[in-house]
Task: inverse folding
């Protein structure tokens, strides 16, 4: 091979000595000159990514417009309206045409200076955290059990939890009220007859606040567990069996495999489920409201949801309390949101 290369003439290669066979691909003509720059030596220049056309980028954003508009109308307008009402004096008179008076932070000052409001907030936070923790523990245990048992037992668990999850809330509350009825309830009968606790024969579960919240906790957890079970079970199915078998061969027992392999792999799922449980349990309403209507002392058993409903005749106060509840929800879930964002960055 001879001829010009980048402006320099290359002399023809001398034939190899007799008896010497040159290695393929390493003949002198194929070797680049030592004084040429790297680009001339055969290295590729860096690839500059091509910028997508403006039309393509705008098309992707335009596809989000319908969903964004629906969310803005369905969620944004009520939120803005609630925030505006919280700064006004808005009651029944304003419903019939009287102009609303702007009062600024007066509603928030009145609410946050009331010790009863702080008692309701404290009860709601405690109820939320206890229920979310119990729901997560029981749901994870049942999800692991469902992954270990046979097909027949797994189908039985799935059907039972689907029935518990799909039953309307009011129908479920009717059944639970009969179970805890002070005269004919099954729970009181079990405590009095088989267990011999005669003091619980006619016990009223809804009169005392502590037992009221115990009954509400049982109902809320029972209705929330199926969602956790199905979600965590779907995450457990994504754990590679090869990894678990390798850990077992290395001597890791069942608890170590669950703690060091399974939990880290399904951690994103657990974060999302825990976040949703905290939000749902903080704004629980139907279960507590129905139990209150069954004979419980309303003032001593109010949570945030039922207390806001009790302010429904004073729209401005209800809006201010709902805004406080929103801020409290964001404060309780900020930890989970930061953890999820950190997981996505990794």
Result:
């Amino acid at each position: 091979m001879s001829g010009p290369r980048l402006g320099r003439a290359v002399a023809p290669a001398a034939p190899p000595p007799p008896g010497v066979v040159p290695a393929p691909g390493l003949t002198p003509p194929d070797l680049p000159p030592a004084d040429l720059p790297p680009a001339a030596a055969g290295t590729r220049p860096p690839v500059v990514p091509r910028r997508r056309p403006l039309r393509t980028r705008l098309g992707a954003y335009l596809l989000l417009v319908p969903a964004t508009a629906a969310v803005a109308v369905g969620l944004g307008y009520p939120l803005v309206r609630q925030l505006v009402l919280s700064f006004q004096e808005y009651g029944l008179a304003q419903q019939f045409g009287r102009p609303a008076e702007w009062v600024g932070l007066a509603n928030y000052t009145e609410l946050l200076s009331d010790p009863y409001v702080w008692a309701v907030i404290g009860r709601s936070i405690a109820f939320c955290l206890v229920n979310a923790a119990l729901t997560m523990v029981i749901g994870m245990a049942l999800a692991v059990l469902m992954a270990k048992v046979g097909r027949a037992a797994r189908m039985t668990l799935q059907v039972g939890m689907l029935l518990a999850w799909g039953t309307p809330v009011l129908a479920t509350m009717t059944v639970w009220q009969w179970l805890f009825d002070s005269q004919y309830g099954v729970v009181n009968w079990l405590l009095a007859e088989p267990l011999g606790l005669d003091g619980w024969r006619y016990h009223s579960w809804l009169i005392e606040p502590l037992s009221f919240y115990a009954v509400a906790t049982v109902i809320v957890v029972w209705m929330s567990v199926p969602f956790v079970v199905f979600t965590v079970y779907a995450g457990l199915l994504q754990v590679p069996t090869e990894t678990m078998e390798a850990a077992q061969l290395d001597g890791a027992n069942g608890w170590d495999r669950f703690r060091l392999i399974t939990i880290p792999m399904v951690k994103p799922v657990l974060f999302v489920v825990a976040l949703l449980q905290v939000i749902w349990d903080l704004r629980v309403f139907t279960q507590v409201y129905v139990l209150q209507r069954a004979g419980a002392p309303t003032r001593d058993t109010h949570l945030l949801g039922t207390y806001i409903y009790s302010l429904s005749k004073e729209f401005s106060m209800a809006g201010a309390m709902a805004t406080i509840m929103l801020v409290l929800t964001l404060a309780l879930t900020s930890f989970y949101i930061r953890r999820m964002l950190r997981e996505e960055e990794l």
Q: What stands out?
A: Residues 139 and 194 are 29 Å apart (CA to CA).
